Amino acid sequence: MPKQKTNSSAKKRFKLTASGKIKRKKAFKSHILTKKSRKTKRNLGKTTVISAADKGRVLRQLNLA
Asked: How far apart are the first and last CA of the chain?
């Protein structure tokens, strides 16, 4: 049986934490930043944890499920 392939875009976008949660970067930080406040831009730079609804999909893309 052939090896399973990991989704290349998913392995670049997501990281696993030690407790098994999946971290991701926030969207909307790449352009059109002049109309966004300092606070918004600062908070968009941080990482967050994916929602429970998306966890199965992401784990399947990373071949961990």
From this structure: 18
- Which stretches of 1-65 are DSSP H helices? 8-13, 38-44, 52-61
CB 28 within 8 A of CB 6: no
Span 45-59, mean pLDDT? Answer: 95
Strand order in the sheet with 22-25: 15-16, 22-25, 47-49
Q: What is the pLDDT of residues 18-27, one digit of tens each?
A: 999 999 999 9
What CATH topology corresponds to 8-61? Answer: Factor Xa Inhibitor (4.10.410)
Q: Are strands 15-16 and 22-25 parallel, antiparallel or unpaired?
A: antiparallel
pLDDT at 1 over 90: no
Q: What is the pTM of this model?
A: 0.80
Entry field: residues in the chain? 65
